[in-house]
Amino acid sequence: MTVEFLEYLEQLLGCQYLSDLPYASADDEQLQKVRGIPTGRFAKKELTEGAAYITGERRDFASEQEALEAIAARLENNR
Fold first, then answer.
1. Are 37 and 68 spatial neighbours (Cβ–Cβ below 8 Å)?
2. Measured in Å, how far apart are the chain's first and last C-alpha atoms?
3. How many CA atoms lie less than 13 Å away from 13 in the CB half-sphere?
4. Are 24 and 15 in contact (CB under 8 A)?
5. What span, in angstroms and rounded, lies between the C-alpha atoms of 79 and 74?
6. DSSP states along 14-40
7. From the CB of residue 76, how many other CB atoms can be counted at a distance below 10 Å?
8. 29 class by beta-carbon count within 10 Å (0-12 exposed, 13-18 middle, 19+ buried)
9. CB neighbours (10 Å) of residue 2?
10. CA-to-CA distance for 7 and 77, rounded, in angstroms?
11. For the CA atoms of 23, 7, 66, 35, what is the dihedral angle to 10 degrees?
């Protein structure tokens, strides 16, 4: 069974619904897990779309890691 990126984050952050993700916050352990998602586990396009959904901004990321960092920064700012 393939887990989509947003579903993965939903589980990781303990959100009840995908629509909770843009408003979710993360503790230090969760942020470390987000930043530590192995590149290649999810396609860059999927990470870019996930970042756009969570941050509310469409950006062209140079790498998967850059997209993950944008997501982690948003989760940290939501604290």
1. yes
2. 32
3. 29
4. yes
5. 9
6. T-SSGGGGGG----HHHHHHHHTSPTT
7. 15
8. exposed
9. 4
10. 21
11. 90
Query: What pLDDT, in 10s, does the model give residues 16-42?
Result: 999 999 999 999 999 999 999 998 999
How far is the C-alpha of 16 from the C-alpha of 63, rounded, in Å? Answer: 29
CB atoms closer than 10 angstroms to residue 28: 8
Amino acid (1-letter code) at residue 76: E
What residue type is assigned to position 57 of the chain? E
Could you tell me if 59 and 48 are in contact, meaning their C-beta atoms sit under 8 angstroms apart? Answer: yes
Angle between helices 28-35 and 5-13 (to 10 degrees): 160
Residue type, 31: L
State the pLDDT at residue 38: 95
Global model pTM greater than 0.70: yes
